[in-house]
Amino acid sequence: MTDLSERWPLADLPDLRDALLAAYADPNRGYHDTRHLIEVLDRLDDLARAGVSFDATVAALAAWFHDAVYDGERDAEERSAVWAEEALASTPYAAEVARLVRLTETHDPAAEDTAGQALCDADLAILASSSERYDAYVTGVRRDYAHLSDPDFANGREAVLHDLAGRDRLFHTAYAREAWEPAARANLARELAGLP
Length: 196
Description:
Elements: H1 14-24, H2 34-49, H3 56-66, H4 76-87, H5 94-103, H6 114-124, H7 131-144, H8 150-165, H9 174-179, H10 181-193
Helix pairs in contact: 2-3, 2-6, 3-5, 3-6, 4-5, 8-10
């Protein structure tokens, strides 16, 4: 794998790249860290290779910003989107990147929103990972929410899992539905079955 800094799409804004890398590398983060950013970028590459049509620069920037702020609080996506709007104000990408970042709050893009579908699918692709990686993801998420009591976290996690499992489809692109949906459903069912 190439150095993550080489995957930054705006060569003329290296200071912004470095600020984002520092945010993802915060040692207080659990799952929403540099590894997650790499995985989202990798899944966007998978989707592009599979023929999903989206603006690669915009999607990559949205991936970089989608968890730029992550502290376990409810408005992290909004704060990440605002950072994107402000930091990218001198570029033609600010509004669209911020819109895409906001979509990662619900992962519910419109049917015609191919960029939103690609980003949301790439972000949720962790659900389809190997059981070992999925378990590490769950552990990381718990660490991200370390400020919550065990019962509060368990209640919140159960609500998230039921929301995801109750959706007609987890993924929006045809490729992701075929390649990732079965494994994701199996992981969700396994985690739900293990809840107290």
